[in-house]
Amino acid sequence: MESDLPRLGVLGGSFDPPHVAHLAIASEAVHAVGLSHVVFVPAAAPPHKDGEERTEAPVRLEMTSLAVDEDLHFSVSGVEIERGLVYTVDTLRAVRQRYPDHRLVFIMGSDSLLQLGTWQEPEQLLSLCSLAVAPRPGDAPEQLAAAAERWGTHRVTILDMPLLGLSSSDIRARVAARRPIRYLVPRGVEQYIAETGLYR
Description:
The chain is an alpha/beta fold.
């Protein structure tokens, strides 16, 4: 039975760069939803971020690998980059092919849950996975509850965790301004950014 299969978390994002909030959200999902593992999937070209400058995919993939290196519950997949996938529903199909003996749980921020109706094939997406949603500072609990209700509360778990307002754009801006990013990103990512001069 599918209900007996281990649960695999899938956390997508630009990861430009990956930071400690990404890791905290993944860790909370492992605990709250009973995940056996979380796969981080750097985006090839996120459709909701058209027009933004984006660090090259191999660089983001390398940083994500460095970010998760010390946690045995985490790994990285380059499936979106390798296949040039754009939509999350296609990514989940590809992940399911690679992990046929797992139930998928897609981990997202609350902003994504609120915009889910604008995504490609949202109902098909939810036939492939359930959702674990990390609230963000400023969220109205009633609004999140209504969004979860819209898609089915059995499909959506709102994570009960500290609200983390950190973003990758914050990190890039701090690096450009030559401000410290220690403790905001994993040590390996901090070293990579320093050594390569990324975001300067």
